[in-house]
Design a protein that fits this description.
Layout: E1 14-24, E2 29-35, E3 38-42, E4 60-70, E5 79-84, E6 95-100, E7 106-117, E8 122-128, E9 134-143, E10 155-163, E11 176-183, H1 193-199, E12 209-220, E13 228-233, E14 251-252, E15 261-268, H2 276-293, E16 301-307, E17 311-317, H3 322-333, H4 345-349, H5 352-357, E18 363-370, H6 378-388, E19 393-400, E20 421-422, H7 427-435, E21 443-444, H8 446-455, H9 471-482, H10 496-507, E22 509-513, E23 520-524, E24 536-537, E25 542-544, E26 549-550, E27 559-566, E28 571-579, H11 580-586, E29 591-595, H12 602-616, E30 621-627, E31 639-644, E32 649-660, E33 669-675, E34 685-692, E35 706-710, H13 713-720, H14 722-731, E36 735-736, E37 738-742, E38 751-757, E39 763-768, E40 773-776, E41 788-795, E42 805-808, E43 811-818, E44 822-826, E45 842-844, E46 857-858, E47 862-871, E48 874-875, E49 883-887, E50 899-903, E51 919-924, E52 952-958, E53 964-971, E54 975-978, E55 990-996, E56 1013-1015
Parallel strand pairs: 15-16, 15-18, 18-19, 19-20, 24-31, 27-29
Antiparallel strand pairs: 1-12, 2-3, 2-13, 4-5, 4-9, 5-8, 6-7, 6-9, 7-8, 10-11, 11-12, 14-21, 16-17, 22-23, 25-30, 26-30, 27-28, 28-34, 30-33, 31-32, 32-33, 35-37, 36-46, 38-39, 38-47, 40-41, 40-45, 41-44, 42-43, 42-45, 43-44, 47-48, 47-49, 50-51, 51-54, 52-53, 52-55, 55-56
């Protein structure tokens, strides 16, 4: 009696419920969640954010007829949605948009429970908000474009991670799948339902703490918890979630660097934009495209659309290079500042669908800039409908001088930045806002950091806002203009005073209490003074010159390395600058390394390194002097001039480092001073190179020399062994595997990922190493005697190994000798025969590093393959990798083609040979089953085998390959005499054919004949 065998447990899936406290709250947003240094969720990938999901990336579940909703009864907290039948795919706790058929409005709900009444055939959802109500009608259900307005309003929202293959899938360590609640920590934050269900009704609301709640999240197949890391932003929310001071200058993004993105920018050119608004928009977008184009090796798709009542003009470039970016910038710069027309929101995004459809797998970003309300009003719904049909698009909306964001807020799906309102005519603020749509998120203005450290009552010094002087706004403006933002984590391992001192060190500034006002003041050390207007202190006002001195030459530093936190790699990067003249003077490099962990951008790190080098490489004057009460009004950071002919001081500019006003008994004011570096001459600086990874490591480039094919029987035997390979083919004679290899495209390339798609979408197959490659520099014939091949343009020449296999097109050759210009080979090895190869054909030396794929495919199946190289800056995006296709043809089971095929003793014969007389055809046997060692026989080798069961057949065809004019069976021997059999009326000439390099397969099913053919 038959039956199914008992299943075997090979592993376990692990899930976890947890509460992870992150930091003081509330915060602006969760930007990224990484598990074991892999991105599990990111706000910049069309995914739902901690502040709500977006218009893009919406799954539709269908249209339901007869759906209605009734608001919650008194005392209840949920509304009831009912409809006939059922709706598949709905999840508890998830957010859905209900688009009503009667008026096309949308209600957003969170489904808390689902029940089905089999008697009436009706489904009931319990949903929030409790006020949800509408009459029965047709309703279209889709993933939510925004979070519902829950009572309390402080909930950060729920995100879903769906990365089941993050750690290699079920064949390795699984992945991450599940819902996570983001608790921002607001002052009105209530209990989390999951925590309450697990820990009881007394669980607190955890106000003031930003945290994550894992709702039984699948964590993989490993019982050990992998490390979690969260990137978050807290800039615009101050203490207790209040609005940040001076918010328009709080966020700083100093530069834009983005690659593999499709960017659609809709620029408002309606009548209200005429003049300064249009000029500011044009300037800001021009600067933005110039910054993006500065890294032209990271190609993007770009489309600009100017719009008013309709689309007025547009330009598009795909995979833009440096020339394309120049053309885009010129196009923007040429836009007129006098414009007219309405503000049709639908027109603004009308071309976005076609643009993104042609973008492949690139990240999709839509920038929407306007200064007006939608006109006509219905154009807002038109725009929303267009965006709802897009897949995974991050939509960033910006208002120019329009405080009402209710309309643009329905288009924007990136609540991490809301809808910024920028002042009219200010391109600096607009370009800063636009930068925030790209990259790794904004940094915080250091003036804002210091101010909050001084005023925060929870973890700061608790000073009143009135204790902060006006200089903070001035410093904030200057730091914003410099693009000098910082991102720092204070973990209370040091005092708040030490933390403030670290910020001051980053920005080179003084913080002090003004003696006259009693307020805190912030002074930046900058070249912001006129030397001719500085106060002069001479022998009349200096009571005691003390001990002034200059730094000795032995103490000078001529090279500075700055370590910083690289936003692109999440690793410590470094840049170095050098004073070349001082190196020559000292005869050696004297270096210093300075850590600035709050800096995240290389360009800023270079500027800071130059600043520090100027100070450390100069023999500056320093010391302490005592002055009269004239100096009582000086503040730290002020600059004065010292004049004393007796001491050789001719108006030297010095900066006040510290002031001691005395003890009240003496009238002198002691000043600790240091010569101001901005009063010195220019320094000859070189460098600015990044030590890691910066400019020495480039973005990955596509492979141009690639080899992708079906794996031969020999390779299966090498990897599986004879017994397992034969057992595999006995079970399924038509099974096959792939093999892929390619060049190292750049010196910094580390390895290459092989991705395959057999019809269900691309999936990672394996990671492989790069192999040596070259190019043929001249045409090569199919004469097996042509063994010395001209080559050049080597990569990895020193890794070429004699006696191993290489691939030239579909021909495998044995490497017998190598130099920079020639490759000596044995032609037509294993199951291939000599072929014609044009100049420029790649030579792929694959044997030692290539492997057969783990995935198995069936004969006739076509598999697409893409190879993605990796560098220190990441992996080549799938959309940028060239695609190769392989159609499986039972390669492993077929016999090897005959070797050394000759006509009348020669390999290359007169094509008209059958018209001249009898032809003696000879060939050498081959044996697939025994030719599996690492010693390879070339095509012209003698008899091997033959493989049991192999027979040979001869066909004679006209020069037209489809016209057969004769044939015979040669049995299992290795020679056949053929006389010419042409009839007068046939004319022309015959073309003898044996087994051809195309390896034609004829027959299918059990017992089908498998043949290889070779042309003569």
């Amino acid at each position: 009696m038959g039956g199914r065998s008992k299943s075997q447990t090979v592993g376990y899936k692990y899930t976890l419920g947890a509460h992870l406290a992150l930091c003081h709250g509330p915060i602006d947003a969760i930007r990224e969640i990484r598990v074991d240094d892999r991105t599990a969720w990111s706000i910049g990938a069309g995914q739902s954010s901690s502040a709500g999901t977006g218009v893009g990336a919406l799954a539709s579940y269908g249209t339901v007829a007869g759906m209605s909703a009734a608001a919650a009864a008194a005392g209840d907290s949920v509304a009831e949605v009912t409809f006939p039948g059922t709706l598949a795919g709905i999840r508890l706790g998830a957010n859905y948009d209900l688009k009503l058929g009667t008026d096309n409005t949308t209600r957003t709900v969170t489904v808390q429970a689902v029940s089905y009444d089999g008697g009436t055939g009706t489904t009931t959802w319990l949903v929030e908000p409790a006020a949800t109500a509408f009459a029965a009608q047709s309703v279209t259900v889709s993933d939510a474009a925004s979070l519902p307005n829950l009572s309390g309003g402080a909930a950060g929202g729920r995100i879903r991670i769906n990365k089941p293959n993050l750690f290699g899938g079920e064949s390795r360590e699984g992945g991450i799948v599940g819902d996570i609640d983001v608790l921002m920590g607001g002052t009105t934050q209530g209990q989390n339902d999951y925590l309450a269900a697990q820990a009881g009704s007394n669980v607190p609301g955890y106000r003031g703490i930003c945290s994550l709640v894992l709702r039984q999240v699948y964590l993989g197949l490993n019982p050990y918890l992998k490390p979690w890391a969260v990137r978050l932003t807290r800039i615009l929310r101050a203490e207790d979630g209040n609005r940040q001071w001076y918010p328009e200058k709080a966020q700083i993004v100093p530069e834009v660097r983005i690659g593999d993105a499709a960017i659609y920018i809709a620029m408002d050119t309606s009548g209200s934009m005429s003049g300064s608004r249009m000029a500011a928009q044009r300037t800001a977008v021009s600067r933005l495209i110039a910054e993006i184009g500065a890294n032209a090796m990271e190609p993007n798709d770009i489309q600009f659309v100017t719009w008013n009542s309709t689309v007025s003009s547009t330009i598009i470039r795909r995979n833009a290079d440096a020339a394309d970016y120049g053309e885009l910038k010129d196009w923007v710069d040429a836009l007129p500042t006098t414009v007219s027309g309405g503000t049709d929101f639908g027109a603004a995004v009308s071309q976005s669908g076609a643009f993104f459809n042609g973008a492949g797998g690139k990240r999709r970003i839509l920038i929407f800039v306007t200064d007006g309300e939608p006109s006509p009003a219905s154009s807002l719904e038109s725009a929303k409908a267009t965006l709802a049909g897009l897949s995974e698009v991050d939509v960033f909306a910006f208002n120019i001088a329009l405080s009402d964001t209710s309309a643009t807020g329905q288009i924007d799906n990136t609540p991490v930045d809301g809808v910024p309102v920028v002042p009219a005519g200010d391109p600096d603020v607009l370009v800063a806002s636009l930068r925030a749509a790209f990259g790794e998120g904004p940094d915080m203005n250091p003036a804002h950091i210091i101010r909050e450290c001084l005023t925060n009552r929870d973890w700061g010094l608790g000073h009143a806002f009135t204790d902060i002087g006006l200089s903070f706004a001035t410093a904030a403006d200057a730091l914003f203009a410099e693009g000098f933002g910082l991102s720092l984590l204070w973990q209370q391992e040091s005092t708040i005073e030490d933390f403030i001192a670290d910020v001051l060190k980053h920005i080179d500034a003084y913080l002090y209490v003004d003696r006259r006002s009693g307020r805190w003041e912030l002074k930046l050390i900058r070249a912001d003074y006129d030397p001719e207007t500085l106060p002069i202190f001479d022998d009349m006002t200096v009571v005691d010159w003390g001990e002034l001195g200059r730094r000795e030459a032995a103490d000078l530093v001529n090279s500075v390395t700055v370590k910083f936190s690289d936003a692109r790699t999440d690793q410590t990067g470094s840049v170095s600058v050098t004073d070349t003249a001082l190196v020559q003077d000292l005869g050696q490099v004297v270096s210093a390394t300075v850590d600035y962990p709050g800096i995240r951008y290389e360009s800023l790190a270079v500027r800071v390194a130059e600043r520090d080098l100027r100070a450390l490489s100069s023999p500056i004057l320093s010391g302490e002097i005592t002055v009269t009460r004239v100096g009582a009004d000086l503040d730290p950071g002020d600059v004065i001039r010292l004049v004393s002919p007796r001491r050789g001081l001719e108006g030297v500019a010095v900066r006040i480092v510290e002031i001691d006003h005395g003890d009240g008994r003496a009238n002198g004011v002691r000043l600790r001073i240091a010569e101001d570096v901005f009063g010195l001459g220019d320094t000859a600086l070189v460098g600015g190179e990044s030590g890691d990874p910066g400019r020495l490591i480039l973005p990955p480039k596509p492979l141009t020399r690639r080899w992708v094919t079906e794996a031969p029987y020999w390779l299966l035997v090498q990897e599986l062994g004879h017994a397992q390979a034969d057992a595999l083919l006995d079970e399924d004679p038509d099974v096959g595997a792939l093999v892929a290899a390619g060049e190292r495209p750049s010196a910094d390339a580390l390895s290459v990922q092989v991705w395959t798609d057999s019809g269900a979408g691309y999936a990672l197959e394996a990671g492989v190493e790069f192999v040596p490659t070259a190019l043929l520099t001249a045409d090569v014939t199919d004469d097996p005697a042509e063994r010395v091949l001209p080559v050049g343009s080597w990569t990895g020449l020193t890794d070429v190994t004699i006696g191993t296999l290489a691939a030239i097109g579909d021909e495998l050759v044995r490497i017998d000798g190598v130099s920079t210009t020639t490759l000596t080979v044995g032609r037509g090895c294993l199951d291939t025969v000599p072929q014609v190869h044009p100049a420029g054909t790649p030579v792929i030396c694959w044997q030692l590093l290539a492997n057969a794929s783990e995935a198995r495919f069936a004969a006739g199946e076509t598999v697409a393959v893409r190879m993605l190289p990796e560098t220190g800056l990441g992996t080549l995006p799938l959309s940028q990798a060239p695609e190769d296709q392989v159609t499986l043809a039972s390669r492993a089971i077929r016999p090897l083609p005959p070797g050394d095929l000759r006509g009348n003793g020669v390999s290359v014969v007169n094509p008209n040979i059958l018209n001249l007389g009898p032809v003696l055809l000879t060939w050498a046997h081959r044996d697939r089953l025994t030719q599996t060692s690492s010693v390879f026989d070339a095509y012209d080798a003698g008899d091997i085998g033959p493989e049991p069961g192999v027979t040979y057949a001869l066909e004679i065809r006209w020069i037209d390959p489809g016209h057969r004019c004769g044939g015979r069976t040669a049995g299992g021997g290795n020679r056949c005499r053929q006389r010419h059999q042409l009839h007068a009326h046939e004319g022309g000439r015959a073309d003898p054919l044996g087994a051809d390099g195309n390896e034609a397969f004829r027959g299918a099913g059990a017992g089908a004949a498998r043949r290889r053919q070779r042309d003569l």
